[in-house]
Request: fold
Amino acid sequence: MNIVLLGAPGAGKGTQAAFLVEEFDLPHISTGDMLRAAVKAGTELGKKAKSFMDAGELVPDDVIIGLVIERLGQPDTNVGFILDGFPRTTAQAVALDAELSKLERPLDAALLIDVDPEVIVGRLTSRRMCKECGCIGSVADASCPKCGGEMYQRDDDNETTVRNRLDVYAKSTSPLIDYYRGCELLVSIDGDRDPKVVYADVKTALNA
Ligand code: ADP
Ligand code: ZN
Reply:
């Protein structure tokens, strides 16, 4: 199963990816998680990416494309993969197509988790993440529901940055919906429901 997850920041891509990973044992390739790990580790990539991320802007295409191509070269992706947060621009989608046709591993689906932007502002500003395992929770969780770790608010989950991320999504990423519709790979799911209900539809849509 070779899948791309599409949707605005906070649409629930990471949550759906986690369900898919658990059930189908596929590698979850989240460019946001990879970049946050690089920032935390203080690598050159992390230093380069941090200011873009804090502002809610996209990290430059050449940086992120190289990172994903390298990741797709690792053998665990032979069984399939779930790309989460990539591609985010048409240039990234074109580069991904080229790489996957080189690897002879075409996409099976581009899954759009569709949620209204105003719903998202509320979701993201009340979102909290576990420092230990990266699990997603809310302001109501005193500690991580999964591992008991400390919860924190991502630097980019404040209202100003969230609104900018949504603008960037509308401008740079939402054109990919038409791009994948054109390749007959687009599958759209209403993401404004309980995550488990959304997941049931995801599985139906993927014939999984
Ligand atoms: P969200 O989807 O909630 O905005 P992510 O964790 O996917 O968050 O990404 C966080 C930030 O990392 C983005 O705002 C952006 O700065 C950077 N980023 C992640 N993926 C990409 C990408 N494919 N291209 C450019 N920048 C990216
Ligand atoms: Zn945790």
Residues 159-173 form the longest helix (15 residues). The chain has a mean pLDDT of 95.
